[in-house]
Amino acid sequence: MPEGVEESAPADVEQDAPATSIRASIAASMQASADQRFGSTARRAAILAAVVCVLTLTIAGPVRTYFSQRTEMKQLQASESQLRDQIADLEAQKAKLADPVFIAAQARERLGFVMPGEIPYQVQLPAGATQSGAPPQGAGPAASSDPWYTALWHTIADAPHGISPATPLAPVPPPPPPPPAAPGG
């Protein structure tokens, strides 16, 4: 049997050689496929990134338009509510003006009208008394002895840009005539 052992040893070595070469080829092919997978993975990642960028750029325009239109819609809704409030106020004023009692009260208050058969009275306050809620005496324009058209002319001609005109100087009186000379002296 020793001969068989010797023969089997080279046979095992011969059988191991193809297995080693197969293992080496498998390892090499796995290394090559790993390299290919790494390359294909990088390619896939680059393609995915490009697709994401294209989708982002495609969606950016409509999203921006959406937000700008949403802001504009909020502004228009605020404007609409303000206009509706204004319409309600005007409708209330229209209803007041359609009421004859309100019209009569306004005519009495603003224009001093009286109904037929009524006697109008006007209360005159004493000179020193002031009416409550009335502006102070100095608040109005100063009274002048000039007629109204002279005051108007001075505001137009002499006071450009709101500058008040200076009061004109009074003419200097002529010198008195010399005393008459005495007849004898």
Automatic annotation (TrEMBL):
What segments bear the compositional bias annotation Pro residues? 168-185
**Transmembrane regions:** 45-67
Q: Where is this region: Disordered?
A: 127-146, 160-185
Q: Which UniProt keywords apply?
A: Cell cycle, Cell division, Membrane, Transmembrane, Transmembrane helix
Q: Where is the composition biased (Low complexity)?
A: 127-145
Which Pfam families does UniProt cross-reference here? DivIC
The domain of life for this entry's organism is Bacteria
- What are the BP-aspect GO terms? cell division
Q: What is this protein called?
A: Cell division protein FtsL
Question: Which species does the entry assign this protein to?
Answer: Mycolicibacterium obuense
**Lineage, uppermost ranks:** Bacteria, Bacillati, Actinomycetota, Actinomycetes, Mycobacteriales
